[in-house]
Amino acid sequence: MLRRRIATQSFAILLAFIIGTLAPQTGCTKQPRSSQYDTLTGIVETRDAETGELSVQEFPRLAGRSRTVLCVINKDAEVYVNDRFSTIDRIQIGDTIELIGHRDADPQLERFIVSFASITRILPPPPPPDLTPPPAPAAENTGEK
Q1: Residue 46: pLDDT band by 50, 70, 90 thresholds?
Q2: C or N terminus of the chain, fewer CB within 10 Å?
Q3: Alpha-carbon distance 85 to 16, whole Å?
Q4: Which conformational region is residue 126 in: left (phi greater than 0), alpha (psi within -120 to 50 degrees), or beta?
Q5: What pLDDT, on the 0 to 100 scale, is given for residue 27?
């Protein structure tokens, strides 16, 4: 009985050792870095619709200072103005803009490559509807007296 207990314990230790050595090799590998996408929010200072370049005065983050960021909107980027699909040439200087994209891979080019842009403009309210009643139809003259 003692031999059986020792054999069972030895088997359990061997099994734990095998699992411990194989586990890192089967699925517990280092995961790739998370997406490099980032958000940027600010005010449009300049725009060049032909090149897709914007300069955006970034809103300050926590205790940081605001700065101007050169942004490039490529041809595949989605641009929305007041939740409607739009184009780069509809972006106006002074617009508040929210961008999703990534920093340029070349650290010497401090550019933000845009994949998605959303602009919310405060529009004036529509004119009030005309509530005057339509004119009454003219009485038909039937010739009866």
Answers
A1: very high
A2: C
A3: 58
A4: beta
A5: 53
User: Residue 15's Cα: distance from chain center in Å?
Assistant: 48
Beta-carbon contacts of 100 under 8 Å, excluding residues fewer than 6 positions away, are 37, 38, 39, 114, 115, 116, 117
**Is the pLDDT assigned to residue 31 strictly greater than 80?**
no
What residue ranges in 10-94 does DSSP mark as E strands?
Answer: 38-48, 53-58, 68-81, 84-86
As given in the structure block, the two tokens for residue 27 are 């699925």
Query: Tokens at residue 2, please?
Result: 């003692």
Count of H-run helices and E-run strands, the chain = 1, 6
- The H or E element spanning position 8 is helix 2-22
For 62-84, the pLDDT digits (tens) are 666 778 899 999 888 999 999 99
pLDDT of 75: 84
In angstroms, the CA 11 to CA 8 distance is 5
> How many of the other CB atoms lie within 10 Å of CB of 5?
9
